[in-house]
Amino acid sequence: MNPLLPPIPPEAAPFWEGTLAQELRIPRCPESGRLFFPPRVVSPFAPHREPEWAVVSGRGTIWSFVVPHPPLLPQFSDLAPYNVIAVALDEEPTVRLVGNLLAREGGGIGEVDPAAVEIGAPVRVVFDRVSEEIALPRWVLAGTP
Hints:
By secondary structure, the protein is mostly beta strands. It is built from two helices and seven strands. The chain has two domains: 7-56, no CATH class; 57-145, CATH 2.40.50.840. Helices cover 8% and strands 30% of the residues. The strands form two sheets. A five-stranded antiparallel sheet has the order 5-4-3-6-7. A hairpin with a 6-residue loop joins strand 4 and strand 5.
C-alpha cells in the first residue's frame, strides 16, 4: 500500500465506498439528524447510537486554505506550490472536508494559481481515483464544467 494513502478503518468504510461510487457520504446522527465528520463508531450527539449515512450534495464553500512549499515529502515536492483547502459543506457548515482545489475535473493539484484561491468561494466535489480502493474528494469552483 502507498504510505501516502489514508488507511480505511471500518467506521469510515461507507465514506470511501461512496467516493468510489462518486458520492459524498457523510455520517449522520440518527437522533438529532446532524451531520458530523470524521466518521466514528457512535454519534458524537447520541453516544449510544451508531451513525447513519447521508449522501450530500457535494457543494460547499472554501472555509480556509494553505499553500505548501518545499521542503515537503519527496512525493509532493515536484507538485509545489499547490493548495490544500478546507471546505464547509452546504448541508452542515460545521462539517469541513480537506482536499485540493482543481482547475477542472481530472486536473492536477498544482494547476490552480494559489493567488486565485478565495475564502468563501463556492465549490463542488469531484472524485480523483488514486488507487483501486480510494477515490479522493477534490474540489472545483461551482461554475466549472
